[in-house]
Amino acid sequence: MRLALNHATTKRWPLEQAVAACAGAGLAGIGLWREEVSAYGLEATAKLVRDAGVPVTSLCRGGFFGAEDWFDDNRRAIDEAAALGAPTLVLVSGGLPPGSRDVDAARAHVGAAVGALVPHAQAAGVRLAIEPLHPMFCSDRCVVSTLAQALDLAEPYPVEAVGVVVDTYHLWWDDQVWAQIARAGTAGRIACFQVADWITPLPEGVLLGRGLPGTGCIPLRRFREAVDAAGYDGPVEVEVFHADVWDRPGGEVFAEMVEGYRAHVEG
Amino acid sequence: MRLALNHATTKRWPLEQAVAACAGAGLAGIGLWREEVSAYGLEATAKLVRDAGVPVTSLCRGGFFGAEDWFDDNRRAIDEAAALGAPTLVLVSGGLPPGSRDVDAARAHVGAAVGALVPHAQAAGVRLAIEPLHPMFCSDRCVVSTLAQALDLAEPYPVEAVGVVVDTYHLWWDDQVWAQIARAGTAGRIACFQVADWITPLPEGVLLGRGLPGTGCIPLRRFREAVDAAGYDGPVEVEVFHADVWDRPGGEVFAEMVEGYRAHVEG
């Protein structure tokens, strides 16, 4: 099965239980988050997934290149990914600097920052994955808003060092996305494929408004077929942020995720 | 002065006072909304603005082409615009049909629906203006998400019958917007230019989260210069939806709008 659990989907489910569920269901792996890894302990987490035979499909997240310590912090994130055996570090690039109205400059800074991290990423054997986030996050979370922008930013750097994330939640509205997925495939840049569904109304702050696969309006199967056709054969991470989903028992959400994946992504 | 008040900015300010303020300050006009016009009375509103010498710059809004009665309702909206002397009817095209995951089909339907309205619009001397809304509204309010899409949809129809709206709030994140504004200008399609600023956090439902000019991160002057360079010399409507702004006295918001316009749009 290509399905992987991104741990953010079951954020409050203890890591041992999430990893055990992935192993038990024969999932392709688990996507982890730095906060939870840090709380559990980096070495302990590495041992946990190794003993369970569950690959870490990605580590979330590096980026936030507006922060003062972005360079050191992202180097640490790369090291953590390497320690976990994660092939990919997902980069959420950060929003506009305070008071800025210059999104072009912020995007250019992302490109330069990614470039500055390439040598360390290559040395560690970790691939940086630039994630375009939905345009509603452009000012405060990620100035990279489309797959085309992410690919433009990745282009100067070696394919094995810098890729992009294709996340259905962020990209579904974009009529250019199908051509850009094909472009990403041809360039060998698809480092990560994440799935969540679009539901409304959006909550305050719009961060925790995602739906489990099949609950919303995104043609998830079309996305999966598009990345397949572009030559991507890696894991399919389900990554859902929603307060109501987080309030439910992890095992219940996990089962629903597997079901939704089979019905709406795989099938 | 090219500034026009879109009445939605001061939604609870009685129409007489809003119109009087526009006249007193020498604004280019006022953008009106069908609900408020209907509550005041269509003929009464037409007389009010005529007597005050305040042009109606646009009527908001037609569209919502997923509704069962869209054809008749939009014909009525065209008639209302004509009765008010408004040159432009702003179209918010509507979201996905219930249960649909096919945004391409919904966009194609918008194009066909606009085409079906062209004869009535031409007969009435009202221009239909397709408004791209921010992608966060794609599923539930407007499947037209970029200026490029709006121009593609307008293209088959006569320029004098179908134009587009350039609204800073909806388009600022898009790195293609400058080229598309130039394209819109070359094609003679800019029917309406609206200004609001982007502020965060977004509120629940994301509709009422706009900022008065200068309070957010959008390069408003760059937009005004871009539409100018594209040959647009019409009014600049400030259209802000925000619960806190609506709670304040209309006159106070009006003064702040004029100030923000002078400092951040005009100057």
Uncertain spans of chain A: none
Give the overall form of chain A: globular
Count of alpha and pi helical runs of chain A: 11
Number of strand segments of chain A:
10
Q: Report the sheet-strand fraction of chain A.
A: 15-25%
Structural class of chain A: alpha/beta
How are the secondary structure elements laid out?
2 copies of one chain form a homodimer.
Chain A: E1 3-6, H1 15-24, E2 29-33, H2 34-40, H3 42-52, E3 56-63, H4 70-84, E4 88-92, H5 103-124, E5 127-130, H6 147-154, E6 162-167, H7 168-171, H8 177-186, E7 190-195, E8 197-198, E9 210-211, H9 220-229, E10 236-238, H10 243-247, H11 250-266
Parallel strand pairs in A: 1-2, 1-10, 2-3, 3-4, 4-5, 5-6, 6-7, 7-10
Antiparallel strand pairs in A: 8-9
Q: How does this model look, in words?
A:
The structure is a homodimer of 267-residue chains. Chain A is α/β, with parallel strands linked by helices and 267 residues long. The first copy, chain A, contains 11 helices and 10 strands. In chain A, strand 1, helix 1 and strand 2 (29-33) form a beta-alpha-beta unit. In chain A, helix 8 runs parallel beside helix 9 (220-229). The radius of gyration of chain A is 17 Å and the shape is globular. Chain A starts with a strand and ends with a helix. The interface between A and B is medium-sized, with 32 and 32 residues.
